[in-house]
Design goal:
Elements (H helix, E strand, L loop, with lengths): L4 E8 L11 H30 L3 E7 L3 H8 L4 E4 L5 H14 L4 E6 L7 H12 L3 E5 L5 E7 H11 L10 H11 L4 E3 L12 H5 L5
Parallel strand pairs: 1-2, 1-4, 2-3, 5-7
Antiparallel strand pairs: 4-6, 5-6
């Protein structure tokens, strides 16, 4: 058993035509895939320092591609695992459960399309999880870009917060917080950040430092 912290990044292999499809009318299929590539590289670049700072495991859960393609793209020192079937809630729940089953004592899971994610923010998230609270990073669209929790919190909350949630709607964060309260779990919110998913969101990417 590996009793360490784990940071999990959810992303998609940047295959043109299958990623960031809502941006294709503005950027074209190749351009949307390139943006996905650059955003993932940026967030992973912020995550990598924590591997040594906190002696944690770093995992990328991907849709599309293969482990070899992912490693060729993003490099070594990372565990690459396919997200598998199901909606986003089922896939997140599976990733967190797998981490806990493999001995992780605390896990933070993040998305790849949030240019505002920084190493300092991720460090803060793990510090809050250490205090015994569930941590959520609010997205400005009403969802969340980060969730962090311990094994005991996952046991208490998993069925409540990953099942029958209106994914993609503006009430995701609100409903998740309500359900956490319903099972008696405290939570802390990080700073709200914007994701990049629609043409009008491109200003968020353009205003951020990126590779």
């Amino acid at each position: 058993m590996n009793h360490r912290e784990r940071l999990i990044l959810f992303t998609r292999y940047p295959e043109p035509g299958t990623t960031k499809t809502r941006l294709i009318p503005r950027l074209g299929a190749e351009g949307a895939a390139e943006l996905q590539r650059r955003m993932t590289a940026r967030v992973l670049g912020q995550a990598r320092p924590l591997k040594n700072m906190r002696n944690l495991d770093l995992e990328v859960r991907h849709e599309g591609g293969t482990g070899l393609l992912m490693q060729t793209w993003l490099g070594g020192g990372v565990d690459y695992v396919e997200q598998g079937e199901g909606d986003i809630g089922q896939r997140m729940g599976r990733a967190l459960d797998d981490a806990m089953q493999q001995g992780a004592v605390a896990v933070v899971l993040i998305g790849s399309d949030i240019p505002g994610i920084t190493t300092a923010l991720l460090e803060k998230a793990f510090a809050k999880v250490e205090e015994g609270t569930v941590v959520l990073g609010p997205a400005v669209d009403g969802g969340y870009y980060l969730i962090g929790l311990t094994a005991s919190a996952l046991d208490a909350a998993s069925a409540a917060i990953f099942t029958d949630i209106p994914w993609g709607m503006s009430e995701v964060l609100e409903e998740t917080c309500r359900r956490l309260e319903g099972v008696g779990l405290s939570y802390r919110l990080l700073d709200p950040l914007a994701d990049v998913d629609r043409p009008e969101d491109l200003v968020v990417w353009e205003a951020s430092p990126h590779p």
